[in-house]
Amino acid sequence: MNSIFSLRQTKDEPYLTQVFSFLLNSDEEFCNFLITNVFNVTSAGAVKTIEPERLSDSGRPDIAIKCENARIAIENKIGAEFTKDQVPRYQKDFDYVFLFYKFLKDRQQANFCTESFTWYKIYSEVKRYIKSLPHDYDLIDRFILNQFIKYLEESGMGIEKVSWEIINGTKSLFNLYPLMAESFERLVKANEIESCKMCGQSYWYYGWEVVIDEQDSFYVYLIYNPFNILTCFQDDK
Fold first, then answer.
1. Is the previous residue joined to 226 through a cis bond, with omega within 30 degrees of 0?
2. What pLDDT, in 10s, does the model give residues 34-53?
3. Strand, coil or helix: what is 159?
């Protein structure tokens, strides 16, 4: 049976924004978990309002969260591009700007965000939160959280593993790309590698150039047909 959020066939950015905003508004404890444990904003204070697509002087962020001590904007990107100076404009009205994305087309603007998360990361955090819930947690809130998890899976943003079955396996295989991209981003942030950038893509492969330091770099290719993950150093290319 499909998620209740899949009763509407549209699975675009505005609808996902509305669904996630509904989840935050309906479950105050989860909203606090997101702000404190995922965003690491520990001094925000109590949440006052959560508004989807709220118009402000700097634009219309997908979700605006007003807390006692902080103003937080969430921008949702499944595939659409940023408008001109979108994130820098948000910074005029908000203390924090967080980006949720499936595929990222404009890394330059994303760098202005406080932090960026793949939707798979959010999916994983929601699952972690559900596992931590006490037995007496509100049944309706628990139901909505589980339905949201199911909706992300149905939307291709929450597939847990690459499976060999042809239908589910194909979906999860294409979901492997953002997971690998997120892994490289984390390595850069942890200073384990100097940089990582895409060096090619087509309908059957994605490629990254990974720079370790000034002297060493290598390439990683995710090949869909047949499925392989290949690595080679500069001299081998």
1. yes
2. 999 999 999 999 999 999 98
3. coil
Give, to the nearest 10 degrees, the angle between helix 119-131 and helix 166-189.
100
Beta sheet of 71-77, edge-to-edge order: 47-52, 63-67, 71-77, 96-101, 115-118
For 4-154, CATH gives: 3.40.1350
Q: pLDDT tens across 160-199, in order?
A: 544 445 555 565 666 677 778 878 887 888 888 888 888 8
Nearest-angstrom CA–CA distance, 125 and 98: 15
Q: What is the CATH number of domain 166-236?
A: 3.30.160
Model-level pTM greater than 0.85?
A: no
Residues composing the chain:
237
Query: 228: which residues sit within 8 A by CB, 6+ positions away?
Result: 221
Residue 73: half-sphere exposure toward Cβ, Cα within 13 Å:
25
Domain range summary for the chain, segments of one domain joined by + = 4-154, 166-236
Which of 162, 154, 204, 202 is closest to 180 using CA atoms?
162
* Among 7, 25, 6, 9, residue whose Cα is nearest residue 151: 6
- Cβ 222 vs Cβ 205: under 8 Å: yes
Distance CA 166, CA 230 (A): 22
Fold matches, 4-154 and 166-236: no
Instruction: Give the whole-angstrom CA distance, residue 58 versus residue 232.
Output: 45
